[in-house]
Design a protein that fits this description.
The chain has 112 residues and is mainly alpha-helical. It has helices at 28-33, 45-51, 56-65, 73-82, 91-109; strands at residues 10-14, 40-44. Helices cover 46% and strands 9% of the residues.
């Protein structure tokens, strides 16, 4: 790894905010999806703080502007690929992203 990279400069953003776990209208299965890898995105600590508990649509809009993507290519790719589902961020969308990530890791990262 790059010696100038400091892991404490990055945080894990929950696209569907953790505060939604308190929503009494959500099923337990939907609440469990909030911590699913398909709902997570590594971004800078600063951007994570700024995005906070904003709605999914607001987060996608801000990330699409590029200000909060911090030049991270995978954040830009994430927005391009999933912004059409930002108004319907449900457990199916989260599961699909988790599967997409698994396929990407299997085929391109580990080259199986």
């Amino acid at each position: 790894p790059d010696p100038t990279f400091l892991k404490n400069n990055y945080n894990v953003e929950h696209i569907l905010a953790q505060k939604n776990k308190q929503d009494s209208l959500m099923s337990q299965e939907e609440k469990d999806k909030i911590d699913n890898i398909g709902n997570l995105l590594v971004i800078s600590r600063h951007s994570n703080s700024w995005l906070g508990s904003k709605s999914v649509q607001e987060k996608f809009a801000l990330l699409e502007e590029g200000i909060y993507s911090d030049g991270l290519t995978y954040v830009t790719e994430f927005v391009k690929r999933y912004k059409d589902n930002s108004t319907n961020r449900n457990s199916e969308v989260i599961d699909q992203r988790a599967k997409d990530m698994a396929i990407e890791a299997y085929e391109n990262v580990w080259n199986f």
